[in-house]
TrEMBL record:
SUPFAM superfamilies: NAD(P)-binding Rossmann-fold domains. It holds the Pfam family NmrA. GO terms for cellular component: nucleus. This is NmrA-like domain-containing protein. Gene3D superfamilies: NAD(P)-binding Rossmann-like Domain. The keyword Iron does not apply. It comes from the Eukaryota. Residues 22-263 form the NmrA-like domain. It comes from Exophiala xenobiotica.
Length: 302
């Protein structure tokens, strides 16, 4: 993604500290590397100097592990607002891509409040109140990652007495899933297309980045095909799922349960949502779920 963004703009400026090896690789490609503190608006403003395009994203899960749900929402919302304010004050800015998620609380009339969605939705509203920044903003929804399979709550586990790898889920096997496939590369293809076509991605348009329509069970079948491991999809209650993985189970299990209720409406709620065909990248060489899983290292997990 860094290479694609560098091609589209004069420089790519990561907001998180880059490991020395990775930084050297990027620098070798002509990318200017700067460091900023996402909790410090002034440092972000300094890092953004001269930028014409900014890709803003925040991480709910790092503060969630340390502080729990509510504090993590507060921290992430503050970080997102810091990014937005710094972007708004960057005089050279032409395009701001904000990585966010649909408003599940609104879609379900308040029934489901998924913490890692909430802070991003708070920032959405913050950006919409800044008319100048809104005119330069594309709201970017990135769908289910193939590498979610490497997170414990999604990783199929071997049930020795059956010889199968069992994936537990709070959602039905036929739940429709939109997936980005491999986030590495695929996200960059979308981001570059967004930046190249401001006449359709601005002002304030929403882009849903997905490359495959599948189901929860089909995702597992693709995992089996890629790894050669026999598997079985087993639906369990949200309560049971949460007990198996305290904290994480409630967070991600609730998301899956909400999607199960919303079905085809899971990625909706905004006017004129753009997809890959609208951006002219319907035939791009995306890396799908099966290929992405095949390229992952499973030695430590299986």
């Amino acid at each position: 993604m860094c290479k694609l963004l560098r091609t589209a703009a004069t420089k790519y400026e990561p907001l998180l500290e880059v490991l020395p090896r990775k930084a050297k690789e990027l620098a070798g490609r002509g990318v200017d590397i700067v460091q900023a503190d996402i909790n410090d608006e002034a440092s972000l403003l300094k890092a953004f100097e001269g930028s014409t395009a900014i890709f803003g994203m925040t991480d709910f899960f790092e503060p969630f592990v340390v502080h729990g749900y509510e504090k993590a929402i507060e921290i992430e919302a503050t970080q997102g607002k810091n990014l937005a304010r710094a972007a708004s004050k960057t005089l050279t800015l032409k395009h701001y891509i904000w990585s966010t998620l649909p408003n599940g609380e609104k879609l379900t009339n308040g029934k489901w409040r998924i913490p890692h969605f909430v802070a991003k939705n708070i920032v959405d509203d913050f950006i919409k109140q800044d008319k100048s920044l809104l005119a330069k903003t594309t709201f970017f929804w990135i769908t289910f990652y193939a590498n979610n399979f490497q997170y414990p709550i999604f990783t199929p586990n071997l049930l020795k007495t059956s010889g199968k790898y069992v994936q537990l889920s709070s959602a039905a096997a036929d739940l429709p899933i939109k997936t980005i496939g491999s986030p590495s590369g695929n996200i960059g293809i979308f981001a570059l297309a967004i930046l190249k076509q401001p006449h359709i991605t601005l002002p304030g348009r929403f882009v849903c980045a997905h490359v495959e329509d599948t189901t929860t069970e089909k995702l597992l079948q693709d995992w089996s095909a890629a790894t050669g491991k026999p598997s079985e999809y087993v639906e369990v209650s949200l309560d049971s799922f949460s007990k198996i993985w305290p904290g994480w189970g409630q967070e991600m299990g609730s998301m899956m349960k909400m999607w199960d209720e919303l079905r085809e409406r899971a990625w909706s709620g905004e006017e004129g949502i753009l997809v890959k065909e609208d951006l002219g990248i319907g035939d791009a060489h995306f890396v799908g779920v099966k290929q992405a899983v095949a390229e992952m290292d499973w030695k430590a997990l299986l």
